[in-house]
C-alpha cells in the first residue's frame, strides 16, 4: 500500500448534495444533512480496479457564498477536484465557471471531475427540474471535463464509478516512469567507469 495521501476537494453550490455523496461513499447509506459550514474532511481508501489501495483525504467544502473565501483555502494543493451540480439547482450550473476558475488559480496539475447529482428525483433525467443533461454536456465540453458523472446519493447511482475512476487516475499519477539517461548522466557514468579502470591498473 502506498503511503501517499491525495487531497480531494468537493466543490459546488449549496444544496447540491456534496456532503450526502461523501457520506454515501464512506458509509454506504443515504443521509440528509444541513449545509456545510466552512469545510469538513474525512479519510477514505480507494481500492482501484487493479486492487491497489489509494489513500485520500476528502474535503467537503461549503457552497454558501459567505464561506467562499474560507473554502478557497482548502483548494490549495488539491490533487483532485470534484465539481458537483444538481438537476434541481440551476444556480449550481451558473456558478460553475467561478468555481472552476478559483480552483485552477489555487492548485496546479489538479484532476477535475464533473458530477450531476440527484438523478433519483422525478423528472430529473427528462430535464424537467431546471438543468438537463444536455446543458451539462455543453458545459463539460466548454471546460474540458472528460465526462459527466450522473449520480444519486440516495440510490448510490454513479458514485462507485466516480471514485473508481478517481482511484485509477491517481494510480497513474503514482506510476512515475524511470527517466532515460541524459547525455550528462551518461558522461558521468563513463567517467566513473574510467576511474575504476585506472584503479585496477595501479594495483
From TrEMBL:
The answer to whether keyword Nucleotide-binding applies is yes
Which Pfam families does its entry note?
Ras
Keyword check for Cytoplasm: no
Q: Which SMART domains does UniProt cross-reference here? A: RAB, RAS, RHO
Q: Which UniProt keywords apply?
A: GTP-binding, Nucleotide-binding
Q: Which domain of life is it from?
A: Eukaryota
Q: What Gene3D superfamilies would the database entry show?
A: P-loop containing nucleotide triphosphate hydrolases
Q: What is this protein called?
A: Small GTPase like protein
**Originating species:** Aduncisulcus paluster
Q: What's the source species' lineage?
A: Eukaryota, Metamonada, Carpediemonas-like organisms, Aduncisulcus
Amino acid at each position: 500500500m502506498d503511503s501517499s495521501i491525495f487531497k480531494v476537494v468537493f466543490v459546488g453550490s449549496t444544496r447540491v448534495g456534496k456532503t450526502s455523496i461523501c457520506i454515501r461513499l464512506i458509509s454506504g447509506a443515504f443521509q440528509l444533512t444541513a449545509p456545510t459550514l466552512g469545510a469538513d474532511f474525512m479519510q477514505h481508501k480507494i481500492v482501484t480496479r487493479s486492487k491497489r489501495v489509494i489513500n485520500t483525504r476528502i474535503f467537503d467544502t461549503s457552497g454558501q457564498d459567505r464561506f467562499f473565501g474560507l473554502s478557497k483555502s482548502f483548494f490549495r494543493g488539491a490533487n483532485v477536484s470534484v465539481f458537483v451540480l444538481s438537476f434541481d439547482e440551476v444556480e449550481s450550473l451558473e456558478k460553475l465557471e467561478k468555481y472552476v476558475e478559483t480552483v485552477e488559480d489555487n492548485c496546479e496539475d489538479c484532476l477535475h471531475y464533473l458530477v450531476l447529482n440527484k438523478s433519483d428525483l422525478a423528472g430529473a433525467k427528462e430535464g424537467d427540474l431546471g438543468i438537463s443533461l444536455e446543458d451539462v454536456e455543453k458545459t463539460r465540453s466548454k471546460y474540458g471535463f472528460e465526462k459527466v458523472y450522473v449520480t444519486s446519493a440516495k440510490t448510490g447511482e454513479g458514485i462507485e464509478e466516480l471514485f473508481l475512476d478517481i482511484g485509477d487516475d491517481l494510480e497513474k499519477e503514482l506510476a512515475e516512469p524511470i527517466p532515460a539517461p541524459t547525455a550528462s548522466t551518461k558522461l558521468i557514468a563513463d567517467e566513473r567507469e574510467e576511474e575504476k579502470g585506472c584503479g585496477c591498473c595501479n594495483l
